[in-house]
Amino acid sequence: MRTASTRERNRALVAGTIGAALEWYDFTLYGIASAIVLGPVFFPSENPVFSLLSSFASFGVGFFARPFGGIIFGNLGDKIGRRLTLVLTLTLMSVSTFGIGCLPSFARGGIWAPALLVLFRIMQGLGSGSDIAGATLLASEYAPNHRRGLMAAIPLTGNPLGAILASAVFGLCTMLPRNEFMTWGWRIPFLLSAFLFVIGLYVRLGIQESPVFEKAKQQRHTETRTGFLALLRCCPDTFFKALMLNVGPNVTSYLPTAYGLAYMTQTLHLSPTVGTNTLAICNVCILVVQPLAGHIADKVGRRKVFISGALLAAALAFPFFSLLKTGKPSMILLGFILLFVLAGSAVLGSQASLLPEQFPTEVRYSGVAVSREFASALVGGTLPFIATAVVTATGSSWAVSLLCVALMLIAAVGAFLCKEGKGKSLFPNVSSVTNRVSV
């Protein structure tokens, strides 16, 4: 059995972090653009609410593609390995993001413009549907048992890094005269994703396969099956628990970052700069808080940290909107710090190690990726659209807050039902694995 060196572990962490940065750069960028620019550029309408809803619908399309990406690349990750799969997902995400920046507007391209936008958004969703799952999984399989929580959480720092970069670049572009920004300025952040791709590809091509996967592959019997169908055969109950658990991070991530920005600009009529500046500050804080959550999970257990974060988010669902309604940047920042930074980091930082610990090695990539991305499609992709429609219809945010409370309680129950993996090995036991995933 090969033992990973410190250099190999560090390179795996860097490779995962860069990929996560690109994914979150893409999705943060699209989320910000959905709230500010994509509606009038690709879905022009005399009714600005309809234009915004159409833009958020295209945002949601990427989420509904993610489960399919999780199934496709999860199967590949379990069959051919984590390394090559992560190269493929990185490439797909990069091509689609760059392509969005090259699209003509509806005024120039007609119906083909929004159609191609949706197509690239689907490609983006397919790639990201297993990239961050593979990054955290790879880090988990490389990590020593006593540091798995911390090491699995480190690639997730790519999320705030990508979001900071997206917010900063997009914020600078909004300083252009409005006509120039709406014509070509908004494209610049999408085109700049090519630089992240080149760096990420170089690093990922240089990593080796995880020792845990290599051992599992050596021990496989001819009857052993891998991938999503094998996952459903061997542990459907585990998959369902993981699906419940994954609801939580989607609420703490996309309620503030996607819908929160739109709520501030469209409903409260605040400057977009307030939102972008708030996100930048919060993401700097997450760079520290999220790995800290992973470290604490190594000490007290993953479930305790996750459930604490989920219950905190449920308690903050109503106060969050009250703080936004003040219109004061300091109060808005406080709301984001509490929900997005503290509660969000607790659930995401512990989820990174908790999820891989639930599944056998032969189906681990599929289990992590598909459970994450089905939850993303069901919750992350629909929450901004539902919230916009509800607030427009009722003139109040209380129903959105109530929905978020229910979703976070579901996530807390899912985490409670999962097994605690603190300190336990991920290396496969051939007899138990064969019994679980063979036909």
Structure description:
The chain contains 21 helices and no strands. The protein starts with 5 loop residues before the first helix and ends with a helix. About 1% of the residues have low confidence. The protein is mainly alpha-helical. It has one domain: MFS general substrate transporter like domains (Growth Hormone, Chain: A, Up-down Bundle). Helix 8 packs antiparallel against helix 15.
CATH architecture: Up-down Bundle
Helix count, DSSP H or I runs of 4 or more residues:
21
Shape: globular
Query: What structural class do helix, strand and pairing data support?
Result: mainly alpha
- What profile does the largest beta sheet have? none
Q: Helical percent range?
A: over 70%
β-sheet strand percentage: under 5%
Q: Indicate the CATH class.
A: Mainly Alpha
Low-confidence stretches: 430-435
What would a concise description of this structure say?
With 439 residues, the chain is mainly alpha-helical.
For this entry, give a set of tags.
Growth Hormone, Chain: A; mainly alpha; globular; 21 helices; 439 residues
What does the secondary structure layout of this molecule look like, with pairings?
Blueprint lengths: L5 H31 L1 H5 L5 H32 L2 H21 L3 H4 L2 H31 L5 H6 L4 H16 L4 H8 L1 H5 L1 H13 L5 H9 L8 H7 L1 H32 L4 H29 L1 H24 L3 H26 L6 H20 L2 H12 L3 H20 L12 H8 L2
Helix pairs in contact: 1-3, 1-4, 1-6, 1-8, 1-11, 1-14, 3-4, 3-6, 3-18, 3-19, 4-6, 4-11, 6-18, 8-15, 14-15, 14-16, 14-17, 14-18, 14-19, 14-20, 15-16, 15-17, 16-17, 16-20
